């Protein structure tokens, strides 16, 4: 494995000089250098498909370590315990996990359960005095999100949302270019986020557990992406919903929504969120001086893309590894990522999604 210096030299100089988490600190994961600072000791709650990915990615972290499990499935606990050498005393179920309060082995709980469970689980983890890392969407609406922010503040613990793209090298490089004015004034963003969903009985198609359909799950990438690609907060949204299969996509579960956002500068965004088109993962942004297009833009990578200056060449590093090391750097050293990952950032997306649902339902232009 090359040294960290070798690795950094492969990055663009501009990206390395960022005063944000995207600095050598955040690249411990990808370097061979030893690290002897504090380790963020994490318990994963919800040992499902994404939890499995995060656990594997954490094996390459330098600053974060998987030390505990919270699951409703005893057989998974047994398997994971053996796989990751987790002691019995760090394993919990959904009834008894409040007892992590008395467990000094655990600093933070990463909630990777269905969306509709995030709020109550966050409140319980905060009450136990542990930092909360919560998957996107942070809850099922902005009201829940705000409750989560308030509870974590009151408990004096961090609330961080699993926005892995905020650590992804090509995405970070593009945001840095935008901040440096390389695209001129951002004018237009197009985001297309979707996949074809399978099993009709899964929680993603159950409103109580998901809070909605494609928009909550995958459309949120275009919502969040519009904000970090344009560097502004929208002031209005409009939206149109299309449903081809009302049996699979019941009331309150959106199949396809096209939505538009307007920004204070006059920039506009036009986006598509869907559970009915495969491999839809594309961002395009154009400004007065240049453009960027990324496809894939938010998948697990490698992300690919180009700007008016040429191809994006930053190396691929497993997103969740960068994210977890970055979150540890934030918690221990106060280093901030180029775009926030805190609860307030999550609430901003939830407010926009609430407005998109209202716009689609009423046909009105909704002011934010
Ligand atoms: P899965 O269905 O694969 O896993 C969810 C896990 O939650 C289950 O395996 C189960 O784990 C636990 N769980 C607890 N209660 C329930 C319940 N009532 N129904 C179903 N599962 C339950 O989902 P994902 O891992 O794909 O998604 C989990 C979260 O992660 C979602 O919020 C999703 O949006 C987010 N996600 C984020 C991604 C990203 O790139 N940032 C990518 C994919 C998902 P156990 O048996 O251990 O209790």
Task: Give a description of the structure.
With 368 residues, the protein is of the alpha/beta class. It has two domains: 2-164, Rossmann fold (3-Layer(aba) Sandwich); 168-314 and 343-367, Dihydrodipicolinate Reductase, domain 2. It is built from eleven helices and 15 strands. The strands form two sheets. The protein has a nine-stranded mixed beta sheet with strand order 14-13-12-11-7-10-9-8-15. A six-stranded parallel beta sheet has the order 3-2-1-4-5-6, with helices on both faces. Helix 6 (142-154) links the parallel strand 5 (131-134) and strand 6. Helix 6 (142-154) runs antiparallel to helix 11 (343-362). The chain is globular, with a radius of gyration of 20 Å. It starts with a helix and ends with a strand. NADPH dihydro-nicotinamide-adenine-dinucleotide phosphate (NDP) is lined by residues 46-51, 71-73, 76, 112-115, 117, 135-136, 162, 164, 203, 209, 217.
Note the topology.
Elements: H1 4-10, H2 13-16, E1 40-45, H3 49-58, E2 64-70, H4 74-84, E3 91-92, E4 108-111, H5 118-127, E5 131-134, H6 142-154, E6 159-161, H7 169-179, E7 186-194, H8 207-210, H9 214-230, E8 236-242, E9 256-262, E10 268-274, E11 280-287, E12 291-294, E13 305-307, E14 310-311, H10 319-333, H11 343-362, E15 366-367
Parallel strand pairs: 1-2, 1-4, 2-3, 4-5, 5-6, 7-10
Antiparallel strand pairs: 7-11, 8-9, 8-15, 9-10, 11-12, 12-13, 13-14
The structure holds NADPH dihydro-nicotinamide-adenine-dinucleotide phosphate (NDP).
């Amino acid at each position: 494995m090359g040294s960290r210096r070798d690795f950094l030299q492969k990055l663009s100089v501009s990206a390395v000089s960022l005063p944000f988490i995207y600095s050598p600190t955040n690249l411990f994961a990808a370097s061979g250098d030893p690290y002897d600072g504090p380790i963020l000791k994490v318990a994963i709650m919800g040992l499902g498909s994404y939890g499995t990915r995060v656990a594997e990615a954490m094996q390459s972290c330098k600053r974060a370590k998987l030390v505990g499990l919270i699951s409703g499935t005893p057989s998974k606990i047994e398997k994971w315990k053996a796989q990751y050498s987790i002691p019995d005393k760090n394993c919990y179920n959904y009834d008894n996990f409040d007892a992590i309060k008395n467990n000094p082995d655990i600093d933070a709980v990463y909630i990777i359960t269905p969306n509709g469970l995030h709020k109550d689980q966050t409140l319980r983890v905060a009450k136990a005095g542990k930092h909360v890392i919560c998957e996107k969407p942070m809850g099922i609406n902005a009201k829940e999100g705000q409750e989560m922010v308030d509870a974590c503040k009151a408990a004096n613990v961090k609330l961080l949302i699993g926005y892995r793209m905020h650590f992804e090298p090509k995405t970070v490089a593009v945001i840095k270019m935008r901040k440096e004015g390389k695209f001129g004034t951002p004018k237009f963003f197009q985001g297309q986020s979707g996949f074809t969903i399978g099993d009709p009985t899964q929680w993603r198609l159950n409103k109580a557990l998901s809070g909605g359909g494609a928009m909550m799950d995958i459309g949120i990438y275009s919502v969040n992406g519009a904000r970090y690609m344009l560097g502004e907060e929208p002031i209005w949204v409009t939206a149109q919903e299309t449903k081809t299969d009302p049996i699979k996509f019941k009331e309150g579960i959106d199949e396809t929504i096209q939505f538009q956002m307007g920004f204070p500068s006059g920039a506009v965004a036009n986006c598509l969120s869907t559970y009915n088109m495969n491999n839809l993962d594309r961002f395009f942004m154009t400004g007065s001086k240049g453009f960027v297009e990324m496809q894939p833009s938010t998948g697990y990578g490698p992300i690919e893309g180009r700007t008016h200056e040429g191809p994006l060449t930053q190396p691929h590093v497993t997103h969740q590894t960068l994210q977890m090391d970055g979150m540890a750097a934030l918690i221990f050293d106060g280093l901030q990522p180029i775009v926030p990952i805190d609860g307030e950032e999550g609430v901003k997306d939830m407010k926009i999604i609430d407005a998109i649902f209202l716009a689609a339902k009423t046909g009105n232009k909704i002011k934010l």
